[in-house]
């Protein structure tokens, strides 16, 4: 650096009177200053003190001032510029606490090893290819790995880092780490940072969130993962103290992938913008249902907007249930619909085989009880429903005297009364008009069927109900649409209670709108709140519309006649279609010529 530039720089710093807190220099300027400081060293080592020339004395004063200024600087920023000597020495910065490198090759910088015990923040932008160049080797010093005792913040932006290496173990006290704009695919090595609270991994190549281990799971509070290729969020389950989570601009397709969010009890800020699932028409409601229940009592922000009251009501509503086959059900709504259509399957085994197998496993006392029960059933089969009244002496034989036997409440009691009596006579001698041909095996089967419902007894001619899942527009909770033989009804998913009901004859139209996910239905009714419904479907929308239109087309056509009217005002004769509405109230007839309502029906 020329002497005139040194004097100008010193004079500007004196005029500004700023404290030497932040100093920003280019590599060329720093290299020139370091070479100029040799004059001060030569002056201090001379044995004979002479009165220097006035100009030289002024230059030495300016150099001494700049040297003191550099030594007192707390923050030093160095950016690249063309220079003759690329090797730079930072030993002059004795009190610096924060260093920032921009486009400077860190391997050409010496002095970091001496500053390692005192540095609190280091920023490296386009300076290194791996973390070990700075944290382990200390740049051009090429030192051995040693602990950075005071380092709290570190930023390695846009360095082309592919892997997070084990050199992070040299910075155990880091609480803020920025690794954005790199090419990182795995972050498992971050588990060694037990005190990390803020982590920025945006603009990398992560395809999922790998599970972290150790104390970082309870310390990490802010996690920025935007602009990656993330599809799996399983690793978030262990981050129990997370406050802020940014997942925008990723590859999350289905809301089911947000199930891990239900474990984040302290989460207060979430961003899912520009993910494929964010374009779902019911995105906010679905996302709210996967959040933890604590979000309902906090000022939770989703996609830069606070949760509404209805969305807070949905928070924590999704809880996975264990299915019968050992797998988890994917949606509580599906469970509700399965409950409505639940069918019991009955398997009838041979009576004797069941009794023998039970007798082998039961002790002696229970065996005697079953033997007594078998005798009673045989007597009931032989003498009919009134076997106790006609055979009162059997009470003494079986030891049941004094026990009051209640009347049967079985729906087959009338049949048993007909069948009671002596069946020893031949079946061919029974009269057709008064008696019924009966088989002993049929009696046992009908008797056993009293306690066991049979699903095959349904009426074959009754049309089965069709159930579809949809969400009413401007509402949050889904409903079940049940299309029956004569009515269309809305039912709640959780309780199956009926909310609204329409006769199929009142359906005017059923059309698909809004890019094939919404259905608009119009009804002919007097109630304004039931004249129209707009439903949002996830699937089976075509099946629902086809079923409803089939109902509309299969209706019995209404009787419609042309009626002749005459206007009393202008004597105009006209014909009008008679109102065929199912409503009792008919529309007002007006004259097409003068719009008068004073018209009479012409017979």
UniProtKB/TrEMBL annotation:
UniProt KW keywords: Cytoplasm, Leucine-rich repeat, Repeat
InterPro entries: Leu-rich_rpt, Leu-rich_rpt_4, LRR_dom_sf
Protein name according to UniProt: Serine/threonine-protein kinase 11-interacting protein
Xref: Pfam families: LRR_4
PROSITE patterns to which the protein is assigned, alphabetical: LRR
UniProt-annotated location(s): Cytoplasm
PANTHER family tied to this protein: NISCHARIN RELATED, SERINE_THREONINE-PROTEIN KINASE 11-INTERACTING PROTEIN
GO cellular component, one term: cytoplasm
Top-level lineage group: Eukaryota
Gene3D superfamilies: Ribonuclease Inhibitor (3.80.10.10)
Matching SUPFAM superfamilies: Outer arm dynein light chain 1 (SSF52075)
């Amino acid at each position: 650096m020329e002497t005139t530039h040194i004097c100008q720089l010193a004079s500007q710093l004196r005029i500004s009177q700023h404290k030497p807190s932040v100093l920003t220099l280019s590599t060329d300027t720093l290299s020139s200053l370091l070479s100029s400081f040799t004059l001060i060293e030569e002056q201090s080592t001379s044995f004979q003190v002479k009165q220097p020339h006035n100009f030289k004395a002024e230059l030495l004063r300016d150099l001494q001032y700049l040297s003191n200024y550099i030594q007192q600087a707390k923050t030093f920023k160095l950016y690249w510029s063309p220079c003759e000597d690329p090797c730079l020495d930072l030993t002059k910065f004795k009190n610096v606490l924060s260093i920032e490198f921009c486009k400077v090759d860190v391997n050409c910088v010496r002095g970091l090893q001496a500053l390692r015990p005192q540095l609190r923040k280091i920023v490296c932008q386009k300076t290194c290819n791996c973390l070990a160049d700075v944290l382990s080797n200390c740049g051009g010093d090429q030192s051995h790995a040693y602990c950075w005792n005071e380092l709290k913040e570190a930023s390695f932006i846009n360095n082309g880092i592919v892997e997070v290496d084990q050199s992070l173990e040299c910075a155990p006290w880091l609480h803020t780490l920025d690794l954005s704009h790199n090419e990182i695919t795995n972050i498992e090595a971050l588990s060694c940072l037990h005190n990390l609270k803020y982590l920025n991994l945006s603009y990398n190549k992560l395809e999922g969130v790998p599970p972290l281990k150790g104390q970082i799971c309870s310390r990490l509070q802010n996690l920025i993962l935007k602009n990656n290729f993330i599809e799996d969020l399983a690793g978030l389950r262990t981050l129990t103290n997370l406050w802020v989570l940014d997942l925008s601009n990723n590859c999350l397709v289905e809301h089911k992938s947000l199930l891990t969010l239900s474990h984040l009890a302290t989460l207060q800020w979430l961003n899912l913008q520009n993910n494929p699932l964010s374009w779902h028409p019911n995105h906010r409601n679905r996302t709210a249902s996967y959040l933890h229940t604590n979000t309902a009592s906090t000022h939770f922000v989703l996609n830069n907007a606070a949760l509404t009251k209805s969305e807070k009501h949905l928070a924590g509503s999704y809880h996975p249930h264990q299915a019968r086959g050992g797998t988890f059900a994917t949606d509580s709504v599906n469970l509700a619909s399965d409950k409505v259509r639940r069918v019991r399957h009955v398997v009838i085994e041979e009576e004797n085989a069941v009794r023998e197998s039970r007798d082998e496993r039961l002790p002696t006392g229970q065996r005697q009880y079953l033997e007594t029960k078998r005798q009673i059933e045989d007597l009931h089969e032989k003498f009919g429903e009134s076997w106790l009244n006609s055979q009162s002496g059997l009470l003494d034989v079986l030891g049941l005297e004094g026990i009051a036997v209640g009347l049967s409440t079985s729906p087959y009691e009338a049949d048993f009364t007909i069948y009671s009596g002596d069946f020893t006579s031949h079946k061919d001698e029974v009269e057709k008009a008064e008696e019924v041909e009966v088989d002993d095996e049929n009696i046992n089967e009908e008797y056993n069927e009293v306690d066991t419902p049979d699903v095959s007894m349904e009426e074959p001619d009754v049309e089965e109900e069709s159930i579809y899942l949809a969400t009413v527009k401007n509402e949050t909770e889904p409903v079940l649409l049940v299309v029956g033989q004569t009515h269309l009804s809305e039912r709640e998913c959780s309780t199956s209670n009926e909310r609204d009901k329409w006769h199929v004859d009142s359906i005017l139209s059923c059309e698909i709108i809004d890019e094939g996910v919404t259905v608009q239905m119009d009804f002919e009714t007097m109630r304004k709140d039931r004249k129209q419904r707009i439903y949002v479907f996830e699937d089976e929308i075509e099946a629902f519309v086809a079923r409803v239109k089939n109902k509309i087309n299969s209706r019995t056509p209404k009787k419609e006649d042309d009626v002749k009217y005459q206007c009393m005002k202008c004597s105009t004769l006209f014909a009008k279609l008679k109102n065929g509405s199912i409503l009792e109230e008919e529309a007002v007839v007006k004259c097409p010529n003068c719009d008068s309502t004073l018209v009479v029906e012409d017979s």
